Amino acid sequence: MTGKLRDQVDAAHPPRSGVRSVPIERHTPDGRAAGTDRVAVEAPLEVLLHHPALGQEPVSFGATMRTPGDDEALAAGLLFGEGVVNAPGDLEAIETSTRRPNVVNVRLTTALAVDAQPAARRFSAGAACGVCGTTGLDAAIARAAASRIAPSAPVALSTLLDLPPRMRAAQARFGDTGGIHAAALFDLGGALLDVAEDVGRHNAFDKLVGRALLAGQLPFTDRIVLLSGRASFELVQKALRAGVSVLAAIGAPSSLAVNLAESTGLTLIGFLRERHCNVYAHPERLSPPAPPPVAPPAKD
After folding, report:
1. What are the residues whose beta carbons fall under 8 Å from the beta carbon of 7, sequence distance 6 or more?
2. CATH (domain of 16)
3. From 5, 47, 48, 129, active-site residue
4. Residue 144 contacts by C-beta under 8 Å, 6 or more apart in sequence?
5. Which residues of the chain have pLDDT under 70?
6. In this structure, what is the dihedral angle of CA atoms 108, 110, 116, 119, given to the nearest 10 degrees?
7. Are 205 and 240 in contact (CB under 8 A)?
8. Is 129 tagged catalytic?
9. How does pLDDT run across 12-41, given as a tens digit for each residue?
10. Is residue 181 a contact partner of residue 250, using CB atoms and an 8 Å limit?
11. Is this structure's pTM higher than 0.70?
12. What is the C-alpha separation between 265 and 57, in angstroms, rounded?
């Protein structure tokens, strides 16, 4: 089922550019001139669930603002992150609607236990929205805090410091627009395994996880995920659900994100740059740089 689902997604729905040219008026101290600029596309996506327990008509799981492309992976990652599905076998089919634009139909297997009134995301979310759309914030925090990340092999500090330029080089849409987020997956040696882009930080992560789910590549054991923005509670929650060992961000973490990472064994890194970073939780996974060579004593 895993290979069939992934082949279906790749063959039927190739990625779209997600970038649009718009007219602008450029102003400088020397004057103004008409021109064009490229911006990231932002459009709504609604996820419809199909399952006998939900009745004959599909049930809306909610809508989010996203950059078109990888919509099926986004839906799969969102449902995994919210605990609706746990494995690719829980998904019978994921199909972009041919009749209604910006709609993805998700057919869940009949063997999957589904709440007739999923607590889900009965909301219309912005691209930056995460747990803010759930109906039980306390329950979401409790579930995340119950997670545990197993010890893993150490990660060299030099490897971490090399990750931002590697992610940036793989961000085709960011180069076009300068206004799109990314989530990148690396192994502990720093090899880039995948990168997903979206106008929303949470959507980029969901796309990354959704691709892995459909390919049977979860959990992200002994993996590093790098975020282009900040590390919020919601993104730490998603990282725990996916089994990430090290979560690094170009931006800052929140206090709740730090607390959650510390209590669950996740290594959390913020302000990752090419020469430095801050480690907010579980620094024991980082191996220090090799000490500088000791100069031999001077001879008389």
Report:
1. none
2. 3.10.20.10
3. 129
4. 233, 236, 237, 240, 241, 260, 264
5. 1-17, 116-140, 173-178, 289-293, 295, 298-300
6. -40
7. no
8. yes
9. 433 346 888 889 899 989 999 999 988 888
10. no
11. yes
12. 42
